[in-house]
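Quick one: co-fold with zinc ion.
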Amino acid sequence: MYARASRGPVIPAPPPKAARAAKKGFPWGIAIGLVVAAGTIVAILALVVFPDSGDSKGGKKSKRKDKTAQEDDDGSKSKSKSKKDEYSAAAEPAIPPSVSDGRVDPKELSRGEGRAVKPDAKEVDLANTISYSADSDPYCKDQARFTDILKEVGYNIDRELRSTSTISEAEEMTIGDAAFQEVTNAKEFRGKIDTPAMAEYRRYIAELAVPLLVSVERKNMVYKFHTIDDPTMNAFAIPGGHIFFFRGILEKPRRIENEAQLAGVLAHEINHVDKRHTIAIFEHLKRIGATSRTGEEIGRIVVAMARHPFSTTQEDEADTMAVKFLINAEYSPKQFVTMWQTWAELENKGRRNQPVDPLEAELEGLLATHSRPERRACNAMRVTMLDKKAEVERYYVGSTNYKQRTTRARRQY
Ligand SMILES: [Zn+2]
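Sure, here it is.
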């Protein structure tokens, strides 16, 4: 399936062993390729239809952002602190008991007013040290305009998908639960999912998701977090709110260094679900009349999602939303930027040290399926500058939390 999928215009080249899965049956690879091609066409159309975001419906988000930026400016000018700016224990949503089973229902979460980061917390980034300009990084200077355009396209696609959606949240969760069974039975994951040895990781991820899930748009989706006992450094999402983290992403030193960075990766995956990226392919199949899928066929599609067959536009949108979620939860967006910069350095280092440096080999799976890390760092910088809140002075980092797998909600360092 991956081999066939790779003939499509966007899906990256697959690992060779995966090609074996594509021998028989309906040519899902081609179907997925077509879907991606259709997505690209929609993207191009959206760009043509809404070239000027300022005057079109596509510009609604930009206008809203401008307003936020304006409000931020006003906020930073005011010298007196309102009560809203002071620490409040209620600003951290209560952890539901279901986290021990990796389950979080956003409807059960609520966040009170005030700041979530305690005044005596040490592992923080001060807001006034978080500042970027496109000129500060030569690569960003070239990318800035490009990512602006892509971002608008992303919103247009998103609006298109949402406005024409025929799959309800309940239906999506049914598809997702069937898909989860198929992932569990898939040869490459069999016996590795939600093992007792990784129960602590699973609880940690689900707990960390709590302050992030407050920001989701689709409150009727219940999220289920899973672990895969495998050293691969990656994470992925499938329909119905099932999100998977490989052991590698939780254990590799220097790849992720603190809770804010892990929260960024987690928020990225949550947004593949919240923004309907994971259900889009099923939406398309339903529309073209290919409605009766066997479990095995659903399985092939969702196992392919482990390789992130999302478009660059969807990746950008998931990152953009991840930064917004981090800021809302008062986790440091600077750490998300730093993570991508570090990964870019590791990637470049790996490339210079040919033949295959272990660092490169480790990052290979991730880079084959995601946008370039430099590009993602630039996007994260830009969104950070647009969405940083004037009333928040300290954003949480949590290096010790990440090492000890104890969320900020339990203890702030
Ligand atoms: Zn992604």
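If it helps, The chain has one domain: 94-404.
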